[in-house]
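Sequence only, no structure available. Ideas?
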Amino acid sequence: MNDHRPKSQVQKEPPELEIRRSREADRINVAYANRRGMICDTFTREARAERHAVYDQLLDAAFPTQRSIIQVLEVGCGSGSELEKLIQLGVEPGHCAGIELQESRFENAKSRLPAACDIRLGDACKTDFATESFDVVFASTVFTSILDEDVQASLAGEMWRLLKPGGAVLWYDFVYNNPRNPDVRGVPRSRVLELFPQATAEFHRVTLAPPIGRRLNRLGATGYRIFNSIPFLRTHLVGWLEKRGTAD
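Reply:
I predicted one. Tokens follow.
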């Protein structure tokens, strides 16, 4: 593929980082190949509805009259469910792009999403999308799957390169480690700010701790909402990380 970045912004990465990115990509592919699909239960439905309501509010505040024309990229788009929701929230399919590392999920996203969406297979740390081509660059439970901090930084840098001035990174991920899952590691607010040091950041605490939420399935949506009203039981962040400036 051709690289459409200005020559001044095309930087050859150190060989050791490229090797580490490749190793991390292989590790993630193995981990996700063994992972179950999304469970459709009360907890999952309520958690999704909660964060999607926050996305809706953030998009409304940033693009009150322009939602249908904004350009959105999701890194690690999985099987396409989150892009599908953004389309339901008013983003045009032809303005949606996604990149996914795992081939089976890429194929699912391609079949699930409208043909107008630009869905690509590859490493999101190094894309051939043009510099400053997206109003929103979205990452949902991506960085917690990357254990190498330099690879995290590489991905964050690429996301920032792709973002237009005045646009924002939309972030959703969990804060705490999961002792039962060595393939992931929590990303706290302080680390998000390290990854995007130039951003003007806004955070929302969401999502009832999954071990608690799933035990409350028998209580239905009411049980989820009661316990989720206790702030310290929420384990995830939605972040809006704005790139200040004016687009040309």
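The CA atoms of residues 153 and 195 lie 6 Å apart.
Hope that gets you unstuck.
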